[in-house]
Amino acid sequence: MYCHNCGKEVRDGSKFCTSCGAKLNVAAEPDKTADTTQPSGEPTGTRQNYNAYQPYNQVYDRGYNQPPYAQPATKTNVYALLGFIFSFFVTIVGLILSIIGYKKADAEYNGDGKSLALAGIIVSAVTMVLAFLALIILVIFAATISYNAQYNPM
Known about the structure:
2 domains
């Protein structure tokens, strides 16, 4: 036998539901030999009748017995994160960490951090190219000053 209010199974002959406390009408229980189809062709008992007078804030357990959903724990790709940060300050360390983070992104981190590692590689490469160009310009400037000082004395 099932409760007409919450749908929980209760023992036959019970006067009250042990789950929600609703009064059970034992005489209203349908006969097992009677026709169990409604005029719409739908079997009886498939719809639950809820008490219209129940308090609005009362929550009933509908019997699903499922644990609450919890987000699965994910690991963070620390190599990609550190590689991106270091790519601005210590370029070669940032490049190495970003490459490690990019390689490990698919295997260990489910693709997490792959784009961050790629950004760290690009920033490191651009920073290294700009540093190399600055070094070349500095050497040319120093050579020009040295040449002018040696061959064009004032």
